[in-house]
Amino acid sequence: MTFENTLEFAQKLDTQDQLNKYQNEFIFPKVNGKKVIYFTGNSLGLQPKRTKSYVDEVMNDWANLAVEGHFYSEKPWWDYHERFANPLSKIVGALPSEVTVMNTLTVNLHLLMVSFYRPTKTRYKIICEEKAFPSDQYMFQSQVHFRGYKPEDAIVEIKRREGEHNIRLEDVLAKIEEVGDELALVLIGGVNYYTGQVFDMKTITEAGHKTGAKVGWDMAHAAGNIKLELHDWNVDFAAWCSYKYMNSGPGNASGCFIHEKHHNNSELPRFAGWWGHNKERRFKMEPTFDPIHGADGWQISNLPVLSLAPYLASVEMFDEIGMDALITKRDTITSYLEFILHEIDKEVDRTFEIITPSNPAERASQLSVLLHGEGRSLFDYLMENGVITDWREPNVIRLAPVPLYCSFEDIYNFGQILKAGIQG
């Protein structure tokens, strides 16, 4: 497609957009009395309008039924989480039995590492990417300390080459082969939070398994954003938060994937709890843990239904739309944003450097832009003029044109605001 930097062209793209109507499904903050241009769905998605009714339903059931809501509400709390299995499995490319919801992201990664990071005297190293999200870095450090190793010995970071912003696939594969028989676990963010780089999860998973290691993925910026085939890729485990691209609300519940090949492995350790016990026998209060078959067997505690309600509202919207339609728009609107940035770059006396890969196969709903010659004041100008975006030191803004609620007109208007901020 040949793009144009005009309002008329952007509006034409919106009229052709099959997902354009979904903007009306969301609540937008306002700045100076106008609806904002919202580019931070990679941090916290907007609130869907339908969310309130899902939460109100739980509140009303609690008021009217009290404890009986566990069994007699329209969506009984007892099995509320089971409603996620089918829609979530489609979002992440899994079998329904391979996904569940529980806890929050880093908690779940810690719990999954109990099962899948099983170091020995000779095989104890973890491979991760350089500049992983800090929570992952802290998790790795504390996990290896807990197991009796030193982080500098057990954690192997794959680094970017000098002068490059992204990690090359061949360097990932080379490092996996180099660590070889000492490698216990590969655990990388499927989409790097800083640059927006999408990793080749299928190829990396195959390489990790070839050495005898387990392979897991932090899907915080991937779930609801990119096409995933976790089952077919033979991924051992994965976890993701729901409040970014899946719009479930601040700090909300996490999703988990455990491949079915591990479901019958009674030797696999896990931290157990009552809610993961055999559902039919749970209230017999038996002294010995008998896990539910499937990912639900990794649950520990009674689930927070009030937190799950907004998440259910969102996954049902995803189920209506389908990932293929989302990704089609995602690719077009991200490319249009890239085009607009390059056009504005020609019109001003500053230089933008997009550090997200230009190859559409290696990026999703995010462009990270290095603003040469600009500082925090430009970010502040954008925020004050209704563009909600994200600042990362030293001078990077992250722009996430989420296809569910961003329009092509938003992209054009952003370009005009950006130009005015630089020229002003």
Question: Layout of SSEs?
Answer:
Elements lengths: L6 H10 L9 E2 L2 E2 L2 E2 L1 E2 L8 E2 L2 H15 L3 H4 L12 H8 L6 E4 L2 H12 L8 E5 L4 H13 L4 H4 E4 L10 H11 L3 E7 L11 H10 L3 E5 L18 E5 L12 E5 L46 H17 L1 H25 L3 E4 L12 E6 L3 H9 L2 E2 L1 E3 L3 E4 L8 H16 L1
Parallel strand pairs: 4-15, 7-8, 7-9, 9-10, 10-11
Antiparallel strand pairs: 1-5, 2-3, 6-12, 11-12, 13-14, 14-17, 16-17
Protein name: Kynureninase
Cofactor: pyridoxal 5'-phosphate
EC number: 3.7.1.3
Notable traits:
13 helices; alpha/beta; 7-stranded mixed β-sheet; 4-stranded antiparallel β-sheet; 424 residues; single chain
* Low-pLDDT windows of residues: none
Portion in helices = 25-40%
Mean pLDDT value: 95
As a percent range, the share of strand residues is 15-25%
In angstroms, what is the radius of gyration?
A: 23 Å
Describe the structure.
This protein has 424 residues and is of the alpha/beta class. 36% of the residues lie in helices and 15% in strands. It is built from 13 helices and 17 strands. The chain has helices at 7-16, 51-65, 69-72, 85-92, 105-116, 134-146, 151-154, 169-179, 201-210, 305-321, 323-347, 376-384, 408-423, and strands spanning 26-27, 30-31, 34-35, 37-38, 47-48, 99-102, 125-129, 155-158, 183-189, 214-218, 237-241, 254-258, 351-354, 367-372, 387-388, 390-392, 396-399. The strands form 5 sheets. It has a 7-stranded mixed β-sheet, sandwiched between helices. A hairpin with a 3-residue loop joins strand 16 (390-392) and strand 17. Helix 1 (7-16) packs antiparallel against helix 13 (408-423) and helix 2 (51-65) packs antiparallel against helix 10. The radius of gyration is 23 Å and the shape is globular. The protein starts with 6 loop residues before the first helix and ends with a helix. The model has no long low-confidence stretch (mean pLDDT 95). InterPro entries: Aminotrans_V_dom (IPR000192), Kynureninase (IPR010111), PyrdxlP-dep_Trfase (IPR015424), PyrdxlP-dep_Trfase_major (IPR015421), PyrdxlP-dep_Trfase_small (IPR015422). Pyridoxal 5'-phosphate binds at residues 105-106, 133-136, 218, 221, 243, 274, 302.
